[in-house]
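ok trying again, last paste got cut off:
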Amino acid sequence: MSGGAARQMLMATTRRQGRVNHLLHKEISSLIEFESSDPRLHGVTVSAVEISPDLKHARVFVVASGDEQRNREIRRGLRSAAPFFRHELARRVQLRLVPELDFVFDRSIEQGDRIEHLLREAKREAGEE
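nice, full thing came through this time. structure:
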């Protein structure tokens, strides 16, 4: 296979993954917000979805405010609801195989806030010198 053909194949895979990521993000967000009756999942937002190249596994990034105890409850709620979400996804989306769902907390917002805080401190200290 030539380099151009391999690159086109990779781009097609990436494009397909992007479409599946977008579709799963939309549907899982809707399921959490409108279909889940588990009170542990109130206020949980899906920030991103990353599907594996073989489309068998999806990492679902979620954001929720609260302390570590609340995060443990959310984690339990998501784990408990995962079979329901997969069943509903099978009914809603046209995929040969509905991926296994792995829910993880998205720490990028916290990390961004921390970086902004450090930059403000550094700027303040530089201004004081």
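cool. The beta strands are 45-51, 57-63, 100-105. The chain has a mean pLDDT of 87.
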